[in-house]
Amino acid sequence: TNWFQGPNDTSLDNNTLTIQAWVKTDATTQNGFIFEKGAVNTQYALFQEGANFTFRTVVSSSYDSLTFATADYMNTSTWYMITATYDGGYKKMYVNTTERASSSYPSKTLDTNTYGVNVGRHSTGYYYNGKIGAVRVYNRALTVNEITQNFNTHKARYGLA
Q1: Mean pLDDT of 110-123
Q2: Nearest CA-CA partner of 26 in 45, 2, 46, 4
Q3: Interatomic CA distance for residues 87 and 6, integer angstroms
C-alpha cells in the first residue's frame, strides 16, 4: 500500500506532541504528506511542500508552518529520520538528530476534530513521492536525547552506520 488511513483516535488530540518518521524521498521538490491528523489543514501534519519540509499546526482555523529547505539536508539516495516537536512554547524540526528549524509558538491550544489520520497522503490526495519506513506520534515533545536514542536504535535498519 502506498498510503494508510486510520480512524479518529482522541489520544492524538494533544497540545504537546512529536511526529517522527523514517523517510526516503524520491523528489526533494514535491507536494506529498508523511503524516496528517485531521482533514487537510485542520489539526497537524508533517509533509513536503514544494522545496520545503513542513510541520504545520492549526489553531482557531489558522495554520502555522515551520519549514526547512529539503535539498539543504536531504537527498534521494538516503533514509532520514524526520522529527517535528511542539512543547507548548516552541516548534522544532530535526533531520536525524540535528535541529534544522525552530520557532516560538507559545501556549497554543491546537484545533481538534473527529477526522482520523493519514500516512503517505493527506485526506484527499497529495501522495508522498518516496518511501516511509515508520511513523510514530507521541503525546509530548521528545528531548534531543530521546530523538538521538530513537535514531541510534533504528539507523542500521535503514542502512545508516
Answers
A1: 94
A2: 2
A3: 25
pLDDT digits (tens, 9 = 90+) for 24-79: 999 999 999 999 999 999 999 999 999 999 999 999 999 999 999 999 999 999 99
Confidence of residue 2 (pLDDT cuts 50, 70, 90): confident
Closest CA to 71 of 80, 62, 58, 84: 80
- Residue closest to 48 by CA, chosen among 37, 62, 34: 34
Q: What is the distance between the alpha carbons of residues 12 and 37, in angstroms, rounded to a whole number?
A: 8
Give dist(CA 136, CA 132) in Å, integer: 11
> Where does the pLDDT of residue 154 fall: very low under 50, low under 70, confident under 90, or very high at 90 and above?
very high
Closest CA to 48 of 63, 30, 27: 30
| Cα Rg of the chain (Å, integer) | 14
For the chain, first and last CA: distance in Å? 28
At residue 127, the 3 state secondary structure works out as coil
